[in-house]
């Protein structure tokens, strides 16, 4: 499996018991003239249906909790920061935990929904246009669908060179975000990457582009996992990984739209 910029996919095994050539190895020798006994099968290989189902569950839950949070009104503002912190903690546990935990992935989705609902309410209130939320959702769905088509048609192939470029770009923007945040403690607006000016618009467009290309690595990692016959339970990792990229993309699109709204 190729390297991916999404840390969630690094927990995926490269092969599974259904796709390797180790059948019969490590089993007691069968009597002469008899076929070797089949090794015990405790799970089944992952399919595209598993990925679609688990991803639909995580996204559906995030949409529900996000909508409910947004609809509660002003209290949503107070929920955004705690939800962001809890979501970060859960995501780190998922990434570094050795075993797949569907409960943690579901909890992460629910908490991220609360965070997205809260931050969406804050931004919509700031620009005075609730319709910006629908626009951001439509933009996120559009980019996701477009990149899926690009991947499935092979218009852009995931090569080792492209993979390294995307990983480097993700690391680069992450460092810039951190530096900008630190600088904002000493100078209003920090480096100007999030103040709504021309540089902020360019930076958001860059982040949207990198997030979009990250989907190609996510799709490829999922595709390689399915071809490798990994255990079906690892579909939860894939759903979690796609969820993290979708959250990032949505936030960047929402932020970009807010810049244009503020400039009107």
Automatic annotation (TrEMBL):
Chain coiled-coil ranges: none
Protein's name according to its UniProt entry: Uncharacterized membrane protein, YccA/Bax inhibitor family
Originating species: Saccharopolyspora shandongensis
Membrane as UniProt keyword: yes
Transmembrane segments: 51-71, 77-96, 103-126, 132-153, 165-186, 198-222, 234-251
Stored PANTHER family: CONSERVED TRANSMEMBRANE PROTEIN-RELATED
Keywords linked to the UniProt accession: Membrane, Transmembrane, Transmembrane helix
One Pfam family here: BaxI_1
